[in-house]
Amino acid sequence: MSKNWYPIINEENCIECGACFNKCSHGVYKLEGTKPVVVYNEGCVQGCRGCQSLCPAEAIQYAGDTGEKKAGGCGCGGCC
Fold it and tell me: What's the superkingdom here (predicted)?
């Protein structure tokens, strides 16, 4: 788990589909009504882009993102 890598939701772009919430099994998100909210930054796995890759609105970026992608995914168990 990471303290330097976590999702940031662009609320203007978010369509509240819940894809990020449904994908993440690490407790990073919760829903407030239908709106996903990041509540557990440290639960995000360094380098995981699973929720970003599923977001149809491209509303997710990551704090700590340097643009580098890990070969073979992030190692969190198949989310990437």
Answer: Bacteria
Q: What are phi and psi of 47, to 5 degrees?
A: 90, -10
Alpha-carbon distance values, 78 to 16, 17, 57 (Å): 24, 21, 22
Whole-number Å distance between alpha carbons of 24 and 4 = 17
Fold of 6-63: Alpha-Beta Plaits (3.30.70)
Token pair recorded at residue 28: 């990073």
pLDDT digits (tens, 9 = 90+) for 18-53: 999 999 999 999 999 999 999 999 999 999 999 999
49-68 pLDDT, tens per residue? Answer: 999 999 999 999 999 998 77
Amino acid type, 45: V
**Total-model pTM:** 0.83
